[in-house]
User: Fold Alkylhydroperoxidase from Streptomyces actuosus.
Amino acid sequence: MDARLDLFATETAGKAFKHFMGVGRTLKGSSLPAATQELVALRVSQINGCAVCIDMHAKDALAAGESSVRLHLVAAWREATVFTEAERAALELAEQGTRIGDGAGGVDDALWARVAEHYDQEQLAALVMLVSFMNTVNRLNIITRQPCAGDYVAGQFH
Assistant:
């Protein structure tokens, strides 16, 4: 499969994409735990069906020391016992924040209260930005049919 558009080849998309990557670097440097970031990025990408991002975040998480068991269970996190309460709250926020078009009504107040029990304001901001960022990047990759799923090497974009 060939990409429909090279996001770096046009002036407008190239400039915008560089800013997106800057957002990603800023989020990586936030106080939100790195493991939580990778789990959330992976879950959002699974929901959206973005193979490029699933490949990237699974490999980056493994390279950072995440267990393969936890990565395999992200899609079924509700039934899994390997996630902390904080991670479970973040994964649910990722799902509710991603499925807004499914008639789910967005993030409900009860979930927001649970997430706020585990993360400070800085981490909450990073978490909300991460969910939004991943949804944007997933859509860019899916719309343009980026073909590199399976070819990613851990750390390639860092």
About this structure: The radius of gyration is 15 Å. The mean pLDDT is 90.
